[in-house]
Amino acid sequence: MINLKIILGTTRDGRQGEKFANWVMDQLKENKNFSPELLDLRLYQLPYYEDVIPAMMLQKPYEPEIRSRWADKIAEGDAFLIITPEYNHGYPAVLKSALDAIYNEWNNKPVAFISYGGGANGSRAVEQLRQVVIELQMAPIRESLHIGIFTGQEVFTESGDMAIPSNNGKLSKLLDQLSWWAKALQVARAKS
Predict the structure, then answer these.
(1) Do strands 79-85 and 110-117 pair parallel, antiparallel, or not at all (unpaired)?
(2) pTM, whole model, 2 decimals?
């Protein structure tokens, strides 16, 4: 089983991301490839990165303690799925802090994205995140899901199901590709 960490990339009140995270977790109940865990950044209030040296040069034990707890969770992961809104053509600052807080624990692992927002459906946030995760030596997969939340069309039903059925198929395709990359990189990490 692939240890999949799903990162809810916003802490804002009234965030839509919880609906997306719940939908993903529900879809993963039937998927035998993944052992998923939701990481809510509200529970990991990481400070902005202010260390004198780059995160890649930090030595354990990390300070502050919240960074060590975050590093342990990320080290467990074989693959990541980041759920992010788009704010002002970018992604949330708390997500950047979470990515910047550590380095080695991210290396050589695949990452996928689900974004949501207005005119570009969150895609501009993902474009920027791809550059960040490459610098962390992660492998961003091609498949991603960008969902408009201000289109006038309901995204979720009252019971929390996806109201746009084609998104279930898109998520399945994304998860298939993430699984392939996670398995390939697990083998490569084991050999090195």
Answers:
(1) parallel
(2) 0.96
